[in-house]
# Entry
Amino acid sequence: MKLIINQKTNKMKQYMITATHLLAIALGFGSHANAQTSKTHPIFSTSEQKNRETYFKTIKVDGLDIFYREAGDKNKPTILLLHGYPSSSHMFRDLMNDLSADYHLVAPDYPGFGQSSAPAPSDYEYSFDNLTVTINHFIDAVGLKKFSLYMQDYGGPVGFRIASQRPGMIQALIIQNANAYEEGLGEALNPLVAYIQNPNDSTVKPVKELMSFAGTKWQYTDGAEDISRISPDSYITDQYYLDKPGSEAIQLALFRNYGTNMKLYPVWHAYFKKFQPTTLVISGKNDKLFIAAGAEAFRKDIQDAQISLLNGGHFVLEEKHAEAAAIIKSFLSKKGIH
# Structure
């Protein structure tokens, strides 16, 4: 009886030793060979990991500090990302991470936005023509030669100016809730139109409401498929910059100047028709500012434009950045930009 018990005990010990050994291997605490494999075959090499990280930089452009985010390998195709109102390069944080393994990404903050210099309107002309001058000089300062141009909201009027002025630099246009057609102007823009046409104490009131916390939050959440996926960090960050001293005067100056963009629609249409730029539209289809009809309108002048509307609002990247990244990679690869 004692012998049988001892045999059972020994078998139980052997079982426990074997099980413990297998568990250790599974958790990575096994043999020296296994440890060496983990060290010598990482998921990413040091250089690959470095390229996938986002770096936060500042460069002098015409005496201004222009802040920008940069990620990806400079030897890979470049995408220049131009943000909208009231955001900054912060709006591209997730998309840059999604695309950094395959592309070189550069996203600046305009003067008066984000971390860039914000001189008073008396010291810097806050017009879309002048923002374009600054970003053109930024392009030259950081050494970009060829790039795809991603444009959202204000990024449209800045980017379309750049593309029509320097068409040889443009590999592709990626348009997200940015407008170049009258049919794309939603009724939610009516207060802005009234202010452009007649700036006074009465017309400025609803425009200032758009600059309030409620107005900023609305731009992010209205039209979203799932509001719980919209990080409050985004609209809280934007509002922080809007509430800084001097910001209201800057933004009102740009609002008053917005009408110059609509006057350039025929110029941009002529550029589209002549150069037929490789074009992808990935707008949030529920946007009430720049509505879906404006996204579809690009096909009028760009024959092979791909329109892939996403189920979201004005800042659709907040919840659809991974879907947008997959569409961008597939589209650019199909067009030989990879």
About this structure: Residues 2-40 form one domain.
